Amino acid sequence: MIALAPRYDFTLTPELEAHEPPEARGLARDEVRMLVSAAAGSEPRDARFYELPRILERGDVLVVNTSATVPAALEAQAASGETIALHVSTTLPGGLNVVEPRHTHVREGECLSLAEGAHAKLLMPYRSSSRLWIASLSLPRPLNEFLHRHGKPIRYPYVKAEWPIEAYQTVFALHPGSAEMPSAARPFSERVLAELVARGVIIARLMLHCGVASLEHDEPPYDEYFSVPPETAATVNSARAGGRRVLAVGTTAARALESAVDERGRVVASRGWTDHMISPGTPARAFNALLTGLHEPRSTHLALLQGLTDGREIERAYQAALARGYLWHEFGDVHLILAA
Description:
The protein is globular, with a radius of gyration of 20 Å. The protein has a nine-stranded mixed sheet, covered by helices on one side. The protein has a six-stranded antiparallel sheet with strand order 5-6-7-10-9-8, with no helix packed on it. The chain has seven helices and 17 strands. By secondary structure, the chain is of the alpha/beta class.
């Protein structure tokens, strides 16, 4: 059995990793598989994502993230002359940035040279991380413009080929700023959205800029910028008061939504940087359903799922996903958790 607590550990083999977008596997975006966990004690069932409108009901609210992915992987020259990859993550208050120099040893105060004479000065490690740094970026143009001119989408070894930035955008993408795609929303298509609207499902928008996702085992998530507008807060509060379902699309939307909950348990219009972490000890209050990807062993995202439903139900779902050959990562399959 999968030991979700306390180490959240299981074995993820290469054949269960999505190595390319579903389109390269002969599927439309909305044809990826969807594991549905619907009721406590029931067996998770198999579906395709395009079936989502038939599962939801009139008045249900989908909370989606409008952050757009930027090409956040840059080529840099270390002081040693070594060419390295530099992943640009979250922008912090004061204009500093969290960055990740990949697969190299760097030191405090080191300047990494970038294109156009730009550079990134590594000021200090970010919190207690051994791989993330707070950096001051000296750039000849605004950050997003610089990234689009010189960067590529962040790609990890399980993705075998380069794909254009469009492959990393969701249908909701409006506001550039995510180092990595809010991938739970990737399967949405115009036809699925049209069916949802026709069924009376409400779409509520917020924003959270995702940082780099290559967290070390058991590493907690870090601060990310979010914004929850007044109309989304009002829509969610009305749905919950009326006993309707609020479905967060992705852990990013879930985190932003929970970061906007006040002491009375109501969602209020909010913006800023959040370090909020949903877990069994800090359960979800603003949403009662979640559409998400399949998360890696020992990741804190698994603790987030247990902040929505019982850990035994998550274990049951992951056993099913492993046994039935579901695909992990940003180009993989999805998991729909209907906790209420």
